[in-house]
Every structure is written in C-alpha cells, then in structure tokens.
Backbone:
C-alpha cells in the first residue's frame, strides 16, 4: 500500500458510512454545521459520497465553521444556502473532524486553527457528529497527538494597524503552565509556513499550543473552564460534552463508533 493510501481509505470509509447510515435518511435536518479539515473536504468534494448533493437537494441551510468551510460551500455551488449563527441560533446537525478523541468523547480540535468557529457552531448544534480515521481515537488525550491543546489568544487589531503588535501571550502562557504544568519550551505560538511570523486565525488572533503533561489525569471540563477565564484567552481547542458520537474509519474500509447511537 502506497504511503498515505491507508489514511485515504479510512477517511473515505468513514465519510461514506456516516453519509449512508446517519445523514442520508434524515428528513429533519434543515440547518447543517459544516466543519473544517481534510476529511470534511473529502465529504464535500467526492460525488460518490454525496454530501454536497444532499445539502443541495434538500435545500439545507449551511453554517460554515471557518473560511475553509465557507469556500467549500461556494465551490460546491451552494453559496445561496449559506447562513450564520446570528441568523440560525439553533443548528439541527453538525459534522466535524478532530485531532484526537478520547473514550469519554472529549476532543482536541484546532490543528487547522479553526477551533473558535468550530466551537461556536458546536455550541449551537442540537447534534454534533465527529468523523476521522482510526488514528484519532485514543484512551486519553495526548496519546498520539503531540501538538498540545491550542489556545486562541486575543490580538487588538486596531493597535496592529498602527504598528503596535503587543499581545497578552506571555501572561497567558505563564498562567496556563502555573495552573496545569506542561513543557515550557515547547509551549509556543504556532508559526506559519507560508507567511512571516505566527499563524493568524480566522478571527485575527494568535494560537498558543499548550504542550500539556500526559502523566496527569485532568478533569478536562475544569481545565477548559479555567483557561477560558484567563485574561486574553478567546477560546480553547478542548471540546467537552459536545459530541454525541464519533465515527472512525479503518484502513480495511470498516468503521467503528463511539458514543450514543440512535
């Protein structure tokens, strides 16, 4: 098997399974939260899977979680079905990926730096389904994902326009490490590969990747709540008690599930 072929088989297996067994038969989905990432992109682009066609035929309102998701919808010719959480406060169904999912359906999201929009949509969704390949499922967070928990740190964009690039990142980092520990050297602001300097989120902020200690058994709900109270923090990539179920594609084309199944 060629490099990457197994992962593509697993991704395709899970999106096709969820499309055929979870979404297609539903008639109650009038609004749809569309996640970000490569697995969601495959679901939208692959005509054999048919997510885009399902949304089109059923005239479903689509709420994107990011610029990437927005562009997917436009590319699929569904721009006239786009809406937002301001106009659609309750979303019938949402689908997204994750960087890691533990056995309690606690997620780390944000590898693509879209977690603020993803979390807003998740909060508004009656039902959130997570899809990914088998590598995303773990017993405890940090088992495979080594890039930590992303924390979005606020930037004052008005100050940036006049040349003031100061931000509360250092104090946020210090507060997180003092409260919960972690690797001080590796806990850094994510750097861009196609621009000078740091990654800038869809909302114009910075991403601090907290490399947390994996030998500590955290109460992730408490951790998420505590970090969000630190001045300068916009949001974290911890999603606790938000996903109803997760589906994982295997390299042999089968799919495993975690969580409540109707």
Residues:
């Amino acid at each position: 098997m060629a490099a990457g072929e197994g992962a593509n088989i697993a991704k395709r297996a899970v999106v096709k399974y969820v499309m055929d067994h979870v979404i297609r038969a539903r008639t109650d989905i009038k609004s749809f939260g569309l996640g970000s990432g490569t697995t969601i992109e495959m679901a939208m682009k692959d005509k054999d899977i048919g997510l885009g066609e399902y949304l089109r035929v059923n005239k479903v309102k689509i709420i994107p979680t990011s610029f990437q998701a927005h562009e997917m919808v436009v590319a699929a010719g569904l721009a006239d079905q786009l809406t937002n959480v301001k106009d659609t406060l309750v979303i019938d169904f949402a689908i997204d990926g994750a960087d890691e999912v533990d056995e309690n359906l606690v997620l780390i999201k944000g590898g693509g730096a879209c977690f603020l929009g993803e979390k807003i949509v998740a909060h508004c969704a009656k039902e959130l389904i997570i899809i990914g390949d088998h590598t995303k499922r773990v017993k405890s967070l940090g088992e495979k994902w080594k890039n930590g928990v992303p924390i979005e740190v606020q930037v004052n964009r008005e100050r940036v326009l006049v040349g003031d690039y100061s931000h509360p990142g250092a104090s946020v980092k210090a507060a997180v490490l003092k409260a919960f520990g972690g690797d001080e050297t590796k806990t850094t602001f994510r750097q861009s590969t196609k621009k000078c300097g740091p990654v800038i989120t869809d909302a114009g902020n910075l991403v601090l990747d907290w490399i947390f200690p994996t030998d500590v058994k955290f109460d992730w709900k408490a951790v998420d709540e505590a970090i969000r109270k630190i001045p300068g923090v916009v949001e974290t990539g911890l999603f606790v008690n938000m996903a109803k179920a997760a589906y994982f594609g295997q390299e042999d084309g089968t799919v495993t599930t975690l969580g409540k199944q109707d």
Remarks:
- The two ends are 35 Å apart (CA to CA).
- The mean pLDDT is 95.
- The longest strand covers residues 128-133.
- The chain is about 30% helix and 20% strand.
